[in-house]
Specification:
The protein is of the alpha+beta class and 167 residues long. It has one domain: Transposase IS200-like (Alpha-Beta Plaits). It has 5 helices and 4 strands, in the order H-E-H-E-E-H-E-H-H.
C-alpha cells in the first residue's frame, strides 16, 4: 500500500472530496458557495496551493498541491477545522444542529501527469455529469473560468496541464 494514499505529503498533489450526509445539501444559496471558498482560503491557503475546484450542491472536489514543509497532521487539522467552521456557520444560518459532511473527507494522490489531466477534466465536467448545467463552462462554482479566461485568481492554473482555451 502506498503511504501517500493514507497521508498528505508535502510537495504532492491530491484530489480531496467529500459530500453531504444523506440527501442533505452543502450549498443552498450563492452565499454558501462564496462562504465555503472564503473559509477554504482562510484555513487552507497556508497548507495548499489550489489547482482546481468544483462545488456541487451536495459535494465538492478540490485539487491541491501540499506546500513544502507541511506535515500530515497539520494539513489534516487545518482541513478539518475548515470543514467544521463551514458546517457550524451553515448549521447556524439554516437552524440545523446535525452533521453536514460525511464522517471523513477522502483524498487521492495524483501520481502521474496523465492522471492530473484526467482529474482536472473530471472536476470541471462534474456539473454537467450531475445534470446541473447543459454546458459545464457556465457553472460558476468551479475553477474552469480561471483556466479558460485571463482572470485574476488564486487558483494555481500554471500547475494544471490542461489548456481549456479550445473548449
Amino acid at each position: 500500500m502506498d503511504l501517500a494514499f493514507d497521508f498528505f505529503e508535502s510537495g504532492k498533489i491530491y484530489h480531496i472530496y467529500s459530500k453531504a450526509v444523506g440527501n442533505e445539501l452543502l450549498f443552498i444559496s450563492d452565499e454558501n458557495f462564496k462562504y465555503f471558498r472564503k473559509r477554504h482560503d482562510e484555513y487552507c491557503s497556508e497548507m495548499f496551493e489550489t489547482i482546481a475546484y468544483c462545488l456541487i450542491p451536495n459535494h465538492f472536489h478540490l485539487l491541491v498541491l501540499v506546500k513544502e514543509g507541511r506535515s500530515n497532521d497539520d494539513v489534516v487539522k487545518k482541513f478539518s477545522d475548515f470543514l467544521n467552521s463551514y458546517s457550524k456557520a451553515f448549521n447556524k444560518a439554516n437552524e440545523r444542529n446535525c452533521a453536514l459532511f460525511q464522517r471523513k473527507f477522502k483524498r487521492k494522490l495524483i501520481s502521474s501527469e496523465a492522471y492530473l489531466t484526467r482529474i482536472i477534466l473530471y472536476i470541471h465536467l462534474n456539473p454537467f455529469k450531475h445534470r446541473l448545467v447543459e454546458d459545464f463552462r457556465t457553472w460558476k462554482y468551479s475553477s474552469f473560468n480561471s483556466y479558460s479566461k485571463e482572470l485574476q485568481t488564486k487558483v494555481k492554473k500554471e500547475i494544471g496541464l490542461v489548456d481549456f482555451k479550445h473548449f
